[in-house]
Specification:
Keywords: Cell membrane, Membrane, Transmembrane, Transmembrane helix, Transport. It comes from Gemmobacter lanyuensis. Its main location: membrane. The chain contains seven helices and no strands. The protein is mainly alpha-helical. It has a single domain, classed as Arp2/3 complex 21 kDa subunit ARPC3 (Orthogonal Bundle). The radius of gyration is 16 Å and the shape is globular.
Length: 191
């Protein structure tokens, strides 16, 4: 039990530290950050349940106002901005990533890469697209001349993230594989 709590807290801190890597702001208002790699690592290393709990702990700290998101953002207001779908999708992505790594019987690197791509890119991008579309509709309803994005425009707004996310998935798989070689017991998704 204590070991699980320690790992959950450690990976919540890892996501926060990855927020120190400077963000790249896009026109859509959704920044490119290193924190999505932390989400992937939560799943690949901790597994589905513990990975999702680490992300939920991180998001609870953000909601309390700690400036842990990339660019020093925090507070409940970030859950109402253009990146709200990504934030809501963080624990879902970590869970799906971890579930794939837990169930995949092949080599850890392949399982981690597949999990990171499916959970950390497909699922997270899907949540982000839905959130961006909902955000644009809410803004348009509140402001007369605000533009509502179509589904196609919301997908197009998410497309600049794909190349970087594939690189992050590869890094997450490599880190997970390295941990499995050096300290197999630390990769809880396989224990």
């Amino acid at each position: 039990m204590e070991r699980n709590l320690t790992h959950i807290a450690l990976f919540a801190a890892l996501i926060a530290v990855l927020g120190l890597v400077p963000k790249i702001d896009l026109v859509s208002g959704v920044p490119i950050t290193a924190q999505s790699m932390g989400i992937m690592l939560c799943g690949t290393v901790l597994g589905a349940r513990r990975g999702a709990l680490a992300v939920l702990l991180f998001l609870a700290l953000v909601a309390l106002g700690l400036p842990l998101l990339s660019g020093g953002r925090g507070g409940i207001g970030v859950f109402m901005g253009p990146s709200m779908g990504y934030l809501v999708g963080f624990p879902i992505a970590a869970f799906v990533t971890g579930l794939i790594v837990e169930k995949w019987q092949g080599p850890i690197a392949v399982a981690a890469f597949a999990g990171a791509v499916i959970g950390g890119i497909v699922v997270l991008s899907g949540c982000g697209i839905v959130g961006f579309r909902v955000y644009s509709v809410l803004i348009a309803e509140g402001v007369a001349d605000a533009k509502t994005f179509t589904w196609a425009q919301a997908v197009a707004a998410a497309s600049p993230f794909i190349i970087g996310d594939v690189i992050k998935a590869g890094l997450a798989a490599g880190i997970t594989r390295g941990l499995a070689r050096v300290r197999p017991a630390s990769v809880l998704s396989r224990s």
